[in-house]
Amino acid sequence: MVVHEEGEIMQTEQDPTMELSKVSMDLTVLHCPLCLRPLTPPVYECKGGHLACADYRVERPGNQRQCQKCERGGGFNVRNAVVDSVLSSVRVDCPHEGCGLYVTYHKLADHQSVCPLAPCKCPVPVCGYEGPPPALYHHISTAHPMPVHRIQYGTVLQLQVPLSEPRLLLSAEEDRRVFFLVGGVLDIGAPIAVSVVCIRAGASPLPHYVAKLWANSLPGEPKGTTDTVKVEMEVTSSKDPGDVDVQELTFLTVPPKLLTGAKLVSLHIQIDKLTS
Q: Which residues are CB-neighbours of 169 under 8 A, at least 6 positions away?
């Protein structure tokens, strides 16, 4: 059985790893004794056979760390190609429910930081629920009274957002991506600030998303003119959208004169998906 980087499993005529799949091992033996993180090739060893990562065997230029396990110390000077091969072949499955990818062990933390099914927190205060974005969307839409709207990338959606609670969910029909519209008052009597957060791992790679937000006033007299404020922003990603402060983001500033009599913001939003 051959497990590819993408997680695809292919059967071979001879299956040399089949028996190994039944063996458990203490993965801490694959950790560097200096930094306590998973060993990453290239790995070096001292004269006593103790291992160290390349990044941590040198304390600073020209001053190599000494092995603390050897009686007389000594530097980590010998490259261990056998351990390098073992580290490159040890794969584990991603612990995130529904992912299913097998990942090289020393790359697991990097994968988890971008995994599309990394658990995210419910933005509703004191809820405590965590789950992958699709499950989180279902949870919020069934367990909380938060408004939920479906969007299509590149298409404008017009909303009436209440000033008292400018928070709602946007669900993209194309890829089931979930976005959180967050708002807040900058200060007493000051304009309202509105922004958008993508609910996913904060270090997620492509695709990226760009949001256009704008708000209009009611037609003025006598010429029927309107005032408009508009902003375009790259959408920030977060696994904890409820903890995001709108003032830490690029946001749309809506002045009080653009609010309707019912304290609503007439908001237009368009989200574009960037794949390169």
A: 137, 140, 141, 146, 147, 148, 149, 178, 179, 180, 181
